[in-house]
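Incident review: delayed structure delivery

Summary: a single-chain prediction request sat in the queue longer than the usual turnaround. Root cause was a stuck worker, restarted by the on-call engineer. No data loss occurred. The affected request and its eventual output are reproduced below so the record is complete for anyone auditing the incident later.

Affected input:
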Amino acid sequence: MEPLTRRLEQAFASRLPGLPAVTRTALLAAGLNDGDALAEVLAAASVVARAPVSVADLAEAVPAGLAVVDGHTVRFRHPLVRSAVGEAAGPAARQAMHRALAEVLAGEPDRQVWHMAAASVGPDEEVASGLEAAADRAFGRGAIAEQAAALAAAARLSPGSGQRGQRLIRAAWAFYNLGRPQAALRLLDEAEPLDLEPGDRLRLFWGREAMGAATRSGTRPLTALAEVADQMRQDGDIDGALHTLENVALRCWWSNPDRRTRQRMTAVAEAVPVADEDPRLLSVLALCDPGGHGAAVLAQLSQHQPGSGTAYQDYLLGYAAAAVGACVQAVGFLTAAAAGLRARGQLGLLGQVLLSQGWSALLLGQTGLAGPAAEEAARLLAEGGSPLWAACAQLVHAVLAGRRGDPATATELAAQAERVLLTGGLPPLLAQVQLARGTAALGAGRYDEVYEQLARIFDPHDAAYHPHLRAWALVDLAEVAAGGGYQDAARRHHAKLIPEAAATGSPLLRASLAVAAPMLATGDAQALFDTASTPA
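Output delivered after worker restart:
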């Protein structure tokens, strides 16, 4: 037996032959229109019929139980009537009606272009360009799902292989931001065999890396993409250059590239002709080289207030603030970003925002914010196909468990996260595992183990080394060093960070140094404690 929906559709279709041809034409206009305005339906039906179509003509469908005409609108009595009408009409009639609707909707380009696309019988650059423009407008109003669909449709209608590939890559990023990485990766697969420009080929490669489809490849792709961004700048594509730099900046933070790579990344960013306070520029400078540009970024962050710009700008500013140790500002910007992204349905980016919010709140001791943020981040990132970042969110809970005296849970969560992170090809991410394990050992009173775990974050020869996470671990390291015979080594770690704090002004690093100093003191520790506890 056929499914009930199919039988219902056939039942509705059986009523159509008894209606006048002009009524069936009006019903087709209503079925293919993306709105319910009666005037639009009658106008489009009139174009196809080549004669005026009136409400009376459409009213013939009412006693047949197919449609309801109510004032200025027309609607179907059942959703399956729409599909029955379209299927009965056939492809040629549907295309003709879509062309008519496009003509009627000439004043509404975002609706018109979809009907033009539906009427197309093959590649059409004019329609593809119109869809791409509609995608840009959709992004501007926060309709990310519409943006993704329009870019994918534009790619299908692109006559040129290179242009099609470029639009497929853009569509992939839009689907990724929606939290649909598998759809994004399928689009990248479609782009793979096309005749891409060298820059687009690199963007495809980077997309696979960022979306978790390939093993990370160290600093080489970072440098190559920096050169792509610089060429875009020279070609006048400022937005493209900054977007490319944004895509690699977070990887730069987590991959510990050499000094030369960091300098090249920031040199390219600083050559882009935008204002010094541009959130895109601040994010790139902070994530790529917080040691060299931290002071400048901190100065520019004061020019912004959470919620004064777009949610995406708040996201960029939140990450920039977190990278330079301005945790209070980071939480403010990221909280505003989370609210905006949630409203826009950008779940992929929301997960990343909540991840950073969770860590920043944790560093501030705001456990009531850190826990829920990390929990939601872990769920969104796991559902969105980002297991590495989901594991990083889980480590927030590991640290929280250690701090509340539950070392068993902390140790188990850290081990689970480590198993995931070891597959990711980004060893510096393991610094967070060490932080969680150190906290777990501290909660259990195993002080030698605390030092051994945390010291790995400070050792440049260790896979878990991360220069910018030393500030996260310094206070706990100093606390256990004081009673475990590790004071000399801890003092050396402390001393190495003093010039960086002076140069960057990082609030987190300065606070960590001030709190750790009395624990490592050889002289008047009380005076140092008093200094550390005095508000700046």
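Verification: Residues 280 and 316 are 6 Å apart (CA to CA).
Action items: add queue-age alerting; document worker restart procedure.
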